[in-house]
Structure formats: C-alpha cells, structure tokens
UniProtKB/TrEMBL annotation:
It comes from the Bacteria. GO terms for molecular function: pyridoxal phosphate binding. Pyridoxal 5'-phosphate (PLP)-binding protein, which is involved in PLP homeostasis. Residues 4-221 form the Alanine racemase N-terminal domain. The modification N6-(pyridoxal phosphate)lysine is found at residue 26. This is Pyridoxal phosphate homeostasis protein. The lineage of its organism: Bacteria, Pseudomonadati, Myxococcota, Myxococcia, Myxococcales. Belongs to the pyridoxal phosphate-binding protein YggS/PROSC family. The keyword Chloroplast does not apply. Keywords: Pyridoxal phosphate. PROSITE patterns: UPF0001.
Amino acid sequence: MSGLADRLAAVRARLRPGVTLVAVSKTQPASAIREAYQAGQRDFGENYAQEWRAKAAELAALPDLVWHFIGGLQTNKVKYVLPAPRPGAAAPPAVGWVHTVDRLALAQELSRRAAARGGAARVLLEVNVGQEGSKSGCAPGELPRLAEAVARLPALELRGLMCIPPAAEDPRPHFARLRALRDALGLALPDLSMGMSGDYPAAIEEGATLVRVGTAIFGERRPQP
C-alpha cells in the first residue's frame, strides 16, 4: 500500500461503527482524492466552492463519491456547490452535504437551489461553541430558532450540528456541549460533525458521527494558490 493508503487505514482503525470519515481534501490535487478513493474512501470534504467545482468536474466519473462542503459558504456561491441543471444535459455534480449552515439566508438559498435540481441537500448547523469573534457559526443561544426555521425548509434535510472548538483549548468540553445542544433541540437529529486530525478520537468518544480528517490522511496541506 502507498503511504496515503496506509495513513487512511490507520485512521479508519480508530473509528467506531456508525462514524463516517470525511477525508478533508482541500488544497489537495484531484490525483490524491483518486488515490484515496482507490483505497476505499468515498466521503471527501472541501472548503472552497470554486476549487471544489474544478475537482468535482475532473472526478465526476467516480461512482458513489460523496462531497461534503465544510468551509464557510457565502450565499452568492451556493450556485457553485448546487449548480442548476441544464435542459437536455446530465445534472452537474453537486455537494451532498453542507456542514456550515450558520444563518437562515444561507439555508434558504441552499433550499432554493436544491429544489431546482429536484433533490435534497443534507445540512448541518455550524455552532460557534467557543463564542469566538473570529469564527463563523451561530451563537448557541440562537440555535433553537435557526434549527426550527431550517427544519421547515423544502429540499433540505437537517441532519445535525457541526463545530470547530477553539484551537488553544481542550476540545472535549466543546464536543460535549455540542452534543448537549443537539439533544436539547428535541428534533431527533442524528449527526454531529466534530473532530479533526488532532482530536477526532476524543470527538468520537463524545458522540461524533462525522469526523473531518485531512492532515492525518493526506499529509501536510499544500498552500492555497
């Protein structure tokens, strides 16, 4: 096996049943995604809409590949991740999951674009658990109202919550808080997207169902052009 395949296998060995590994492929070339795909990986996470669009077009022939958008998403860039179908042509690739819904306007645009494609997008609400001014995500106090509004939108499937804990703090209390916030909503949401290369085992112990792992699989991130 290659180094990438070995690293991928090592990460998988630490997962529990019911946990989906999202291989974070942002800034990685399409060839690296293809290599991970050949090693059995199917779920990939991207942060930048236009970078994702180029890779999705190059890898469109790979069956069962599932794209997760895990970066901040501007409303005017939803058209890139959920592109409109063209009459008489096959539907262009689209992301299957958006982990970073943090405001109603974004959810409404995702709903509109997903409906135009005739399908549904799975979404997670990003929560700023550390209440950091420099990070996106809705405030914990705003979460119930946002969740209720998003759950009512057509062509969206609200699946759960996502967070990125403060880098300088123990992540475990933040993971536990996200789980508690999810449970308090009373909406029977199955998923928690939390945990990255440095802390995904702790996230799994705290209830993560989706872990976003990049460096531990692909190696050090390439600088963005």
